[in-house]
Design goal:
480 residues; alpha+beta; PmbA/TldD fold; seven-stranded mixed beta sheet; six-stranded mixed beta sheet; 9 helices; 40% strand; globular
Amino acid sequence: MNYVELALDTAKSLGADYADIRIQKAQTERIILRNLSLKDTSLNELYGYGIRVFKNGAWGFAHSNVFSKDAVVDTVKKAYSIAEESQKLPHGDGLKLAHERGYIDTYKTDFEIDPFTVPLSEKVGMMLEVNRTLMNYESIQQAIFMLECRKDEKKFGSTLGSRLDIITVYLEPMFQATAVTKEDSQSRTFTEGGKATGWEYINSLDLKSKAEKVAEEAIMKVNADTLGEERRRDLILDPIHMSLTMHESVGHPTELDRVLGWEADFAGISFATPEKLGKFQYGSEIVNFVANNTLEGGLATAGYDDDGVPNQKWYIVKNGILNEYGTTRATAPLIGEEMSRGCNRATNYYDFPINRIPNIYLEPGKEKLTPQELISNTKDAVYIEGRGSFSIDQHRVNFQFGGDMFWEIKNGKKVRPLKKVLYKSNNPEFWGSVDAICDERFFRTMGVTNCGKGQPGQRGGMTHGGATARFRNIRVGGSQ
């Protein structure tokens, strides 16, 4: 039976202004090794459908994992009933949906080897080889390797005429070495986040060589000095580290639902309010944040969002000025936009789609510049690699970040490794201090797979990136 047509015909017969159905099968595999021991392995599959009905400016949503004529019809009726009840609540004139048309299309992540066809023994064997390499170093007392693979198969249909078949795949390898001395323990991590691709990505990484570097830097780090008292210094940040700062200080504050206060009681609001569009100096003139849901390998790249809106590319910040938001069909009209930017996504079939961060990256510099040249032209700085701790206020203004590996820069040279470094800043001081960005040859991405948002909570994915950049005169110091 064609459940898509059944659901949409039923919704139209009830009088829905708009309706869609998302049939989704999601497979997730997770494997965890600690030292040379397999600690956990799981393979989960979720299969069902979610139905949205829009009536008189209000949404209704219902879901089921029972595939039968009666179950689908009952689920549509439930969603319609919820929409009818929702419209009774006082919300002005209700929501309006941005204009969109229907699409008949297919999308599939570009991959050669489906990670779910790779035997568990091969995956565990690869992970064991990495952990053995880490444990070969006497000072490394713990090695952890975590691997996650996910595959989504989705059919989407709407009363606009859309009929979409979408298959997305990603995998995320992450391993960590912890070095221990009598006085301290410190960890160093390899992660480039999730990547929308197949098992061939793992084969291309040369993880054994990377494991040697991770172990050696963990040992350097545990024996390193702390930075000392906080004072103003320059920062040089690698793209993997910047993925964390831009996620928290650019990605979240430019989700339009957060700007509108829809997340206020749970995750906070945003300082980047609509009256600032086209005026607010978010960063220096060379700071351009691109939202790009067509980015190859991006975790938010899926052809279309869960409103059936095509993936797009646009500027969130252009020449340092707040330019636009990430929007959905329901949020865009609230600031006068006629079209959505396609940022509505749900995690599983039983989740209602919500306004999500797109793939966002810092555009590389236009002039040729290598990381080494950037370091050579810097007198007093700390160079930070990798992701670490973070804290940011409920308006996304004031924040504090740590990293995974730290180096002191003096007179154009790396002079020593450091540990326990933190920096503090705010929007727009931080992005306004950027005075140099390396060119596109040094552009790297980091896929975030665990962005938490919503009530009930959902786990979302998006990719960030950039090239190594310099930030002037930031508060940097050592923690204890």
